[in-house]
Amino acid sequence: MLSTALDQNFLELPPDALYEVAENIWSSVLELDIQHAAEPLAAFPAGEPLLTGQVAIDGRWRGALVLICPVSVARQAAAAMFKIAPDDITETESRDTIGELTHMLGCNLKSLLPSPSRLSLPTVTEGYNKTTTGRPVGHILLRCENQPLQISLFEQECVA
């Protein structure tokens, strides 16, 4: 379980927690490599459509996990997941894959959070749609297939 700061009720996320969870999913489920982005602010390719997946976490700890990536990365991930050629991937399969990856990331992180907690169904939208509010407790920029992807975890203050 992740620790909370002594002087506040907020979560302290170990620096590599998001990377370890993501790397495990990408390597074991998709058989794709991901790496830390070399540049601190990896820009998404201009004109490349993006998909944003999000799940809410509710319970003793409340927050949201957000995954943002180019459609080309979603297509590669879907091809790996469905075992078909990237050119044969439909928009629905790309969106479903981002939803499933977001849910897997959330499930893996949820097991580290104070319990009980539950995960919402994932939502997937087009574009860069980080609509969640809260304090960022984890943010990582990665590269997959030489394209950037971003994973963020936000904590919402629990009202007693």
TL;DR of this structure?
This protein has 160 residues and is α+β, with helices and mostly antiparallel strands.
Task: State the main characteristics.
single chain, 160 residues, alpha+beta, Chemotaxis protein chec, 7-stranded antiparallel sheet, two-stranded antiparallel sheet, 9 strands, 33% strand
Describe what this molecule looks like in 3D:
This protein is of the alpha+beta class. The protein has one domain (21-38, 47-156): CheC-like (Chemotaxis protein chec), CATH 3.40.1550.10. It has 3 helices and 9 strands; from the N terminus they run E-E-H-E-E-E-H-H-E-E-E-E. The protein has helices spanning 17-30, 71-82, 91-110, and strands spanning 3-4, 11-12, 34-36, 50-59, 62-70, 117-119, 123-126, 135-144, 147-156. The strands form 2 sheets. Strands 3, 4, 5, 6, 7, 8 and 9 form a 7-stranded antiparallel beta sheet that branches. Strands 1-2 form a two-stranded antiparallel sheet. Strand 1 and strand 2 form a beta hairpin. The longest helix has 20 residues, at 91-110.
